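Q: Joint fold for the lines below.
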Amino acid sequence: MSASLKPTAPAERAGQQPTIAYDGVVKRFGSLTVLNGVSAEVYKGEVVCLIGPSGSGKSTLLRCTNGLETVDGGRVLFDGGVVPSDQELIRRVRQRMGMVFQNFELFPHMTALDNITVGPTTILGEKAASARERGLALLDKVGLRQKADAFPSALSGGQQQRVAIARALAMNPEVMLFDEPTSALDPETIGEVLNVMKRLADEGMTMLVVTHEMTFARRVADRVLVFDHGRIVEAGPPEQIFENPQQERTRDFLGHLGWNG
Amino acid sequence: MNLDWGIIWQYRWDLAHGVGITVALTVLTMLIAVPGGIAIMMLRQSRYRVLRGLGTAYVEFFRNVPLILLVYWAFYVLPILTDIQFSAFTTGLVALSLNVSAYNAETIRAGIASIRKGQLEAALAMGMSHSQAMRKVLIPQALRRILPVLASTWVSLFKDTSLVSVIAVGDLAHTALQIRSQTFRVLEMLTAMAAIYWALGYPQAKLVDWIHRKYGVTE
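A: Joint structure:
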């Protein structure tokens, strides 16, 4: 599927409210400024990949989106409202955003299925039987129905990450945040996770993906944001970023990765 | 020396009754002190400074007071303060629970601190409240991790229940010491007491080790 078939450029979205908007976001850890005035918009159904060197602020921006980090300046908007810092208010935002972590963070004392149902039953008060049925369907979707009763320790990294994706989807999120979802995986299991993500993108899920998988960004992203030293140095459709980068920093970064188009 | 081991057999039912009281005290104390420890640990992590201070004060006070003093205090002072006269058994139970809750609070706190930050973040990112994350994600993992420590606490507690004999709770220690003073069979009764405590304590420690192997969390 060619990315150019999707509506991509923000100009085509004129008048539409972005699902997520970053407005001059600043984040400091002590004396280190990790995000230095980042502004960007993400529209419904878009897949936006965040790339750039380690420590450039892309994961921090993702974590500011659902309040795992609080911002020191500027603001993050979700669905038109400022993402609150109050611990009770932010829960409602988090329930509408799924997050997938680099280290999976499955709950090791629960089976794969229980990992998926614990959110809906605990947070949304869904009945156990209905959560179980949906949980099995989600496991089916990520190709792991036969592992419903397996504990995370019995699953490979790729399988754990697929369960983690199913767990996030169980809350019926409007947005999925992926924080380097394949960085902790063995090379042979990266593909199965990326395939699940690609299918999600094809279904129209709004996705923010921090990744070092340039091939995935090239094939699946609608837009790519290139980070360096806490700023977005270039943003555009993957064709521009990977084939005709406008900025020296983008060329440098891709050059270091051995990317040659 | 003239030893009469028959004395132990002769008083077997009294000793068995004492064992029953000792076991009951241990089990009931732990049933109170595990939830109690969790509650005090939660106090110590409260976002309100007053509650945090209360939790810390509790732990620091009850961990650093000799248990025997606590037993005497609960027996002589608590009734004056509260105007309620507990039975000797209940008084002993209160003193032991106050003490063991403080230890458990610290153990559970350490267990939770040992769980990596990403687990809490994963729970919060779903939309769980802090207390839901505690209940569903952190505490169950922490309890599994600290099982060996709780096991040592359990075995210590089993032996420490002997301290309530000073307020005449009819536990194993009190019963054995009573028989000793009535029969003057000091060596036999103290030996029997040691043998019974050991014979009961050792399998408990082994049982908890086994539970740990079976239910421990593997990552």
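Q: Anything notable?
A: The radius of gyration of chain A is 18 Å. The longest strand of chain A covers residues 32-42.
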